[in-house]
Specification:
The structure holds three protein chains of three kinds.
Chain A lengths: L1 H18 L14 E9 L6 H20 L3 E3 L2 E11 L4 H15 L3 E3 L4 H13 L4 E3 L14 E3 L4 H16 L3 E7 L3 H16 L3 E8 L7 H9 L4 E3 L7 H10 L6 E3 L7 H6 L7 E4 L8 H14 L5 H20 L4 H9 L4 E3 L2 E5 L5 E3 L1 E7 L2 E8 L8
Parallel strand pairs in A: 1-3, 1-4, 4-5, 5-6, 7-8, 7-9, 9-10, 10-11
Antiparallel strand pairs in A: 2-3, 11-15, 12-13, 13-14, 15-16
Helix pairs in contact in A: 2-11, 3-4, 5-6, 11-12
Chain B lengths: L1 H31 L6 H18 L4 H24 L7 H23 L15 E4 L2 E4 H23 L1 H11 L11 H26 L7 H17 L3 H22 L9 H15 L14
Antiparallel strand pairs in B: 1-2
Helix pairs in contact in B: 1-5, 1-7, 1-8, 1-9, 2-3, 2-4, 2-7, 2-8, 3-7, 5-6, 5-7, 6-7, 8-9, 9-10
Chain C lengths: L1 H28 L1 E4 L5 E3 H6 L13 H22 L6 H24 L6 H27 L32 H21 L6 H25 L11 H4 L26 H21 L8 H37 L2 H20 L3 H26 L7 H20 L17 H27 L4 H21 L9 E2 L7 H20 L1 H11 L1 H6 L4 H27 L1 E2 L6 H14 L4 H17 L7 H15 L22 H13 L1
Helix pairs in contact in C: 1-3, 1-4, 3-4, 3-10, 4-5, 5-7, 5-10, 7-10, 7-11, 11-12, 11-16, 12-16, 12-19, 12-20, 12-21, 13-14, 13-15, 13-19, 14-15, 14-19, 16-17, 17-19, 20-21
The chains are: A alpha/beta, B mainly alpha, C mainly alpha.
Chain lengths: ~400, ~300, ~675
């Protein structure tokens, strides 16, 4: 026994000794004087792992880029940007706990995320209470930023997108009746469905079907049969890209021939691969059009494709923009104080990102244009754009 | 009328799928008295193996189906050997919790090992054709699903009722202490049960993937719970019950939103109403539709 | 006796060997530091360098940080062990003790010369703390050495069961596939039994441990910051270092291994096998790096592990043990004199001290504590139904949802101004708000209990797996209904719930729930609950009013679940039906069966462990929910009854007489039971 223990201790000692011989890691050329830690909260597991994956990919890209350009410059000194990524498992309580951890333990300067409103709303409370700037790239629930000076977002809100789409179906298809199919248990589809309904009714489109299903369903035949029986001119379905192919295919199978229109949650290239022919010729509104993107956008798209072998989705683009917003704010503030960063964020004017030009309103919500995309020849093609009144100023 | 027939066909498709998955639940339960909570995730693995067969190996539909059923069946047997067998003497609920763990392991392991991109079968796997029969749209996919589910059910029923193996299975489920004394190998029968049950789950998975071609590692989660509900409502342990329960669940899920509107209930209330109905069924018939009250012994 | 002789030799020899080795390695052989010009310095150079002539970089390599403390700790532990050797070997133990003290002192002393702790005040404080630790450790060791101890070699001492020679004999060849565990158990159990026998750790009352923990948390408050920076942590490890431990593995990507075989429509792979192999190889490289990397920036797992162990030993384990050992006699005596309610109250008060003191470090710890409390309440309430009554409820989160919503609606509607319900209906002075909160929580619990009736009534006829479906259905119905009530936000959730839950609330309510359930199940009425589990028909025959018993069990269970939901809502400041889905119910199930059915202490421990595990495994991201089920499966296979199936942890809550035949018998029985 003693011999064995002795051997064990000796082995341990040797292992430990081996540690000592490594040299200290060399610094690169940039002469960083310190680190700026940015927290990222992403749903890597749970309902929407793909969203989490895109978030992390975009975040890594944004950070690698800025560090390649010698990081953030504050007071003429360069700081390396480091991200602390946390998984929130698509759960509200986990999101609250990781946000607290990021703020208290990692001492992050700001938090990017969470993406889904279900987590972004409670997490925004944490960030606001602990006075840390937070940008949710993707959340569309007004509550996320409402009355929370520290919380911002990169996506436009349902009350803007709903009318854009309603006006679009009226103008494009001359629709007089429409049906809506949405997920009642998810925040985003439900909010947008209701906004669309209200906007459509306001401009005289009759909503003949307002059908719902529950998160995780894959069979929509009952609701679609009911909808088709009402013969609407157009079907609106603000669902995620992984549900849209099912809805579109089932609707076609059941004999619906009218146009199907969607929202920014469609904007993932996977949609085309999953949906195939069935989605050809459909329209949806989103933040940017890959084919007419600005220079910033083109650079981002090609860099992303090179790095990850796939086109960026809307989550990646918005997350990337959220990072750029933060970097711009830190540079403008020329300070690493959270309060200064917050003020600079609130003061961002006409920021030019991948998803277009944007400014923040007093709630921390972006004012930006929406574009209408047509799915044509297996690609997202620019069709039209719609901007809030008086934006962008000439 | 067309509306009703259309909804009826819709319900038949969904119900057949639920029934297929519920069959596996109920078989394992019948023999081992084990609620195999991993069943939904085995179903997912079956669907993913369909991707492996159809894309990576470039096989047509039927070979893919067979390949997936065999591989998944073997996986089921393996799971039983590694995770459940050591617990055969333990309390029933520790096995159930183990099953829950196996399910979580499968779905998250799949996510970790294959990434988060959703999968789908190639367009050429089964080319969808839609037939319009008197205003009712019926696709070939629906027909294939309903027919195949019925065939598989009939085959299983024959195996269980008409073959020696089936007799052994029923015997084990009747008395697992006396039957091994008669020279029936309990281990073999249990393995066979798992092979059949998980093979059916794989078939369900592939048919599901054909009908709803977006596959992700969590797809088995809700479907698994629903099939469990179906199996229990039908009377768990009885394969006719599983088929009936699956169809019943399918019909409730389709017809509640279909006719709810006309009596003033929005389709948003589907889940509470569907589960409320199931609750009532269980209160009226405490052992499900086909279930027989087991002798009370603990 | 041959056993004893054999063991004394091994102990003494081992101790001397290890100490000699550690000191030799420490002082002579190793390059301590890598300087920026890649030259290295040894410890002797460093000690000689009192003028600071060497160009020592701010970040020193970990050799220094690892070998000396580990050596000191090894010596300290061995000293403790050595002292336990029989009387004639005391010279060795004294020697070891001295060596240990010297090493501990050396460890802290050397850092005095090191520019590691930047500003001078914290440096002084740090050195003071180093000597403080050394002093406490030394005093404890001396005190322990001075105490008369049991000698297993002396015939007629029943306190310790003599260890049979075979138990420590040559390694048996692996007999079956469980051999690593069997081997470990065969090695460890004589060891643990011996240590437990000598120290009689189980005879130390909980009170003494609690005071020890209080001392440890105070030590951490004073010295944790400096000490953790010394070890290379950026800040005090919040959860005993568990969250830091797995951080090195956070960058591992497993997704390439099987992805080539299951291509998504977006990807194409020409050679899946090669792509998969490539991913596997890359993963292997990353894994080795994550394991052994050693830079200050991304320390590898081994390095972090050593530091974490070190931190926990020095800050927590050793102080707790020392204080507990010192206080064993007085606290036993005190507890024996106090009436049992007073003893219990005293222990609860000290426990509160520990919890609040520990949780006061930062908000993250506080939040974890609150989650722990919520999980404890959830687990014990579910255990009442699933463990004690033997039903299989799988929809417990439904009751939590009812409680959460009702409590939140009440507090928002009645007491605060917000957007959903407008201004507060009642104008309550600030001091009375806690009362309002309590009422809201109770109302939430009552509402949940009413929802519990939905399960309780069917349970009269429906049993087993059929009842499981009823509970599942209730869970789905509750969340489905909540999704549909747009007045309270529907799927959007209810935002603006006041942040009222804090550690104090959670502590009080958790303790009350635990006591209530304990009381319930140990009462005559509670025996009825257990009787239903064992055999419902027989219970009915024996005069148990099964319907009433079931009704009460479901009501109590869902009441407590509802309360926990209310508390949960008031810490998230937000409720959403999706939070209380089937996943939450599954978590509750996992906690109950992890801890063991029919065991309150099991559920409590499982809830605490589960909460910490969830946080600790967070860096693993996707892998987290692979590892947790794996642990669950392994636990179930090797310990199907859970940690404490159908029994409670034996806690010395009421004090034990130090001497006397009854106590000795109990102790030897304990040892035999192991």
């Amino acid at each position: 026994m003693s011999k064995r223990l002795f051997t064990l201790v000796l082995t341990l000692a040797v292992v430990v000794a081996a540690f000592g011989s490594f040299p200290v890691v060399a610094q690169d050329d940039c002469d960083f004087v310190g680190e700026v830690v940015v927290g990222v909260i992403a749903p890597l597991t749970g309902d929407i792992p793909k969203v989490g994956q895109s978030t992390v990919e975009a975040a890594n890209m944004a950070v690698d880029e800025i560090n390649a350009a010698c990081g953030l410059t504050v007071d003429d000194e360069s700081y390396e940007v480091v991200i602390a990524v946390e998984d929130n498992e698509s759960k509200a309580e986990s999101s609250v706990s990781v946000a607290t951890r990021l703020i208290v333990e990692e001492e992050v300067i700001a938090i990017i995320g969470p993406q889904a409103s279900k987590q972004a709303v409670p997490t925004g409370q944490v960030a606001n209470d602990r006075e840390t700037p937070m940008i949710s790239p993707w959340s569309t629930n007004p509550d996320t930023t409402f009355d929370r000076p520290w919380v911002f977002r990169a996506a436009f809100l349902d009350p803007f997108q709903g009318p854009v789409l309603a006006n679009f179906v009226a103008a494009e298809f001359g629709a007089t009746s429409a049906a809506v199919l949405y997920d009642v248990a998810s925040d985003y589809p439900k909010g947008l469905a209701e906004n669309f309904r209200d906007a459509a009714e306001a401009i005289g489109i009759e909503i003949v079907g307002f059908e719902s299903f529950t998160l995780g369903d894959t069979d929509f035949s009952s609701q679609l049969t009911s909808i088709i029986a009402q013969e609407p001119d157009v079907l609106f379905t603000p669902q995620y890209y992984n549900e849209v192919p099912l809805i579109v295919q089932q609707a076609r199978e059941l004999g619906f021939e009218g146009p199907i229109v969607g929202s920014d949650s469609w904007g993932t290239p996977d949609l085309i691969d999953l949906c195939g022919e069935a989605c050809e010729g459909l329209f949806f509104s989103t933040h940017y059009a890959p084919d007419i993107a600005t220079e910033v956008g083109q650079t981002f798209i090609s860099a992303y494709e090179e790095e990850y072998g796939a086109k960026p989705d809307d989550v990646a683009a918005l997350t990337y923009d959220a990072f750029q917003l933060l970097f711009t704010a830190i540079t403008n503030a020329n300070s690493l104080d959270k309060e200064d960063v917050r003020e600079a964020l609130a003061g961002v004017e006409l920021f030019e990102g991948v998803t277009g030009v944007m400014s923040f309103d007093e709630q921390g919500d972006p004012i930006k244009c929406a574009v209408i995309i047509e799915i044509k020849d297996g690609a997202f093609t620019y069709y039209d754009s719609a901007c809030p009144a008086g934006f962008p100023p000439e | 009328m067309e509306f009703f027939v259309q909804q009826f066909v819709n319900a038949l498709q969904l119900g057949s799928l639920y029934a297929l998955i519920a069959l596996g639940y109920t078989m394992v339960y019948g023999v081992l008295l084990l609620i195999n909570f991993a069943h939904g995730d085995i179903f997912m693995v079956g669907a993913f193996l369909g991707v492996f067969g159809s894309i990576t190996l470039d096989l047509p539909f039927v070979p893919t189906l067979v390949l997936s059923m065999v591989l998944t069946g073997l996986l089921g047997v393996g799971i039983e050997r590694v995770a459940y067998k050591p617990l055969r003497q333990a309390s029933r609920l520790s096995v159930v919790i183990t099953a829950l763990g196996v399910g979580l392991l499968l779905e998250n392991g799949m996510l970790a090992l294959t990434g988060a991109n959703p999968r789908s079968y190639p367009q050429t796997f089964i080319t969808t054709r839609v037939y319009d029969i008197g205003g009712v749209a019926i696709s070939n996919v629906k027909i294939i699903i309903i027919v195949l589910a019925a065939l598989l059910f009939a085959g299983l029923y024959t195996i269980v009722q008409r073959t020696k193996w089936g007799m052994a299975m029923r015997a084990i489920s009747y008395d697992k202490f006396a039957v091994p004394l008669m020279g029936v190998s309990q281990d073999q029968i249990i393995s066979l049960t798992f092979l059949l049950g998980t093979g059916l789950a794989a078939a369900g998975g592939i048919l599901w993937g054909v009908a709803f071609p977006v596959l992700n590692p969590y797809m088995g989660l809700r479907v698994g719970w629903k099939a469990f509900v179906a199996a229990v409502v039908g009377g768990i342990g009885d394969i006719r019950g599983a088929a009936a329960g699956g169809l019943l669940l399918g019909f409730i899920e389709i017809f509640v939103p279909a006719y709810g509107d006309s009596i003033g209930i929005s389709s948003t209330w589907r889940d509470p109403i569907a589960f409320g109905l199931l609750l009532i069924i269980l209160v009226v018939r405490p052992t499900g539709l086909f279930g027989v009250a087991r002798r009370q012994k603990v | 006796m041959s056993t004893t002789a054999n063991r004394t030799f091994s102990l003494g020899g081992l101790v001397v060997l290890v100490c000699a080795l550690v000191i030799a390695i420490a002082v002579v052989g190793l390059p301590w530091l890598a300087l920026e010009d890649d030259s290295t310095v040894t410890a002797t150079d460093l000690i000689a360098d009192t003028e600071g002539e060497l160009d020592v970089p701010a970040r020193i390599t970990n050799t220094f940080l690892v070998v000396v403390p580990v050596g000191a700790l090894a010596a300290g532990i061995l000293a403790l062990w050595g002292m336990l050797a029989p009387r004639h070997n005391r010279a060795v133990s004294t020697l070891v003790l001295l060596v240990g003290l010297v090493l501990v002192g050396y460890y802290y002393g050397t850092f005095f010369y090191e520019d590691h702790v930047n500003d001078s005040t914290s440096a002084t404080e740090f050195v003071r703390s180093g000597f403080f630790v050394a002093l406490v450790a030394g005093l404890g060791l001396i005190a322990q050495a001075a105490l008369p101890r049991a000698n297993p070699g002396v015939a007629g001492n029943p306190l310790v069961r003599p260890v049979p020679v075979e138990a420590a004999g040559p390694v048996a060849l692996p007999q079956n596939w469980r051999w690593p565990f069997a081997w470990l158990r065969a090695r460890l159990s004589p060891l643990t039994r011996r240590i437990a026998g000598y120290l009689a750790l189980s005879r130390i009352p909980v009170l003494a441990y609690l005071v020890g923990m209080l001392a440890a948390t105070e030590l951490e408050r004073r010295e944790g910051q400096a000490f953790s920076r010394l070890l290379g942590f950026r800040r005090v490890p919040s959860l005993f270092g568990s969250t830091e431990l797995l951080e090195p593995f956070s960058k591992l990507d497993f997704s390439g291994i099987l992805a080539p075989f299951f291509p998504s429509p977006t990807d194409t792979y020409d050679a899946p096998l090669r792509a998969s192999w490539e991913a596997l190889r890359q993963l292997g490289e990353d894994f080795v790096y994550a394991l052994t990397s050693h830079g200050a920036r991304e320390p590898g797992f081994l390095k972090v592990l050593l530091h974490v162990v070190e931190y926990d030993l020095i800050i927590f384990i050793i102080p707790v043990l020392i204080v507990a050992l010192l206080l064993r006699k007085p606290s036993n005596a005190l507890l024996l004199r106090l009436p049992s309610w007073a003893g219990l109250t005293l222990q609860i008060v000290v426990l509160y001290g520990v919890v609040s003191h520990w949780g006061a470090l930062n908000d993250y710890r506080g939040l974890v504590l609150i989650y722990m409390g919520v999980n404890i309440m959830l687990a014990i309430s579910l255990n009442l139904v699933n463990g004690y009554m033997g039903e299989f409820s799988v929809g417990h989160a439904g009751f939590m949802a009812v409680g959460a919503y009702v409590a939140s609606i009440l507090t928002m509607w009645l007491f605060i101004d917000e957007r959903v319900f407008g201004d507060a209906v009642l104008s309550v002075p600030d001091w009375a708000l806690p009362i309002g909160f309590l009422i809201a929580l109770i109302a939430g619990g009552v509402a949940a209990a009413l929802a519990g009736l939905l399960v309780a009534f069917p349970s009269f006829r429906t049993r087993g797996d059929y009842l499981a479906i009823v509970t599942l259905a209730v869970n789905f119905i509750v969340t489905g209904v909540l999704n549909n009530i747009s007045a309270i936000g529907g799927a959007r959730g209810l935002n603006g719930v006041p942040l009222w839950t804090n550690v104090r609330w959670i502590f009080v309510l958790t303790i009350l729930s635990v006591l209530a359930i304990h009381h319930l199940v140990s009462s005559t009425f509670g025996k009825g609950i257990v009787a239903i589990r064992e055999d419902e028909i027989a219970a009915e025959q024996m005069g148990v009013h099964t319907r009433r018993v079931k009704l009460v069990a479901f009501l109590v269970s869902s009441f407590i679940a509802g309360m926990s939901g209310g508390l949960f809502a008031h810490v998230l400041a937000y409720v959403n039906p999706g939070v209380f889905g089937i996943l939450k119910s599954t978590e509750a199930l996992v906690m109950v069966y992890l801890g063991g059915m029919g065991s309150i202490s099991g559920s409590v421990i499982a809830a605490v462990l589960f909460t910490i595990l969830i946080e600790a495994f967070r860096p693993l991201a996707v892998l987290k929910w692979v590892v947790i089920p794996l642990i669950l499966i392994l636990l179930m296979i090797y310990r199907p009854q859970g940690l404490f199936g159908f029994r409670e942890m034996t806690l010395n809550l009421k004090g034990l007489k130090e001497d006397g035949p009854d106590v000795l018998k109990e102790a030897s029985d304990d040892a035999a039971a192991d």
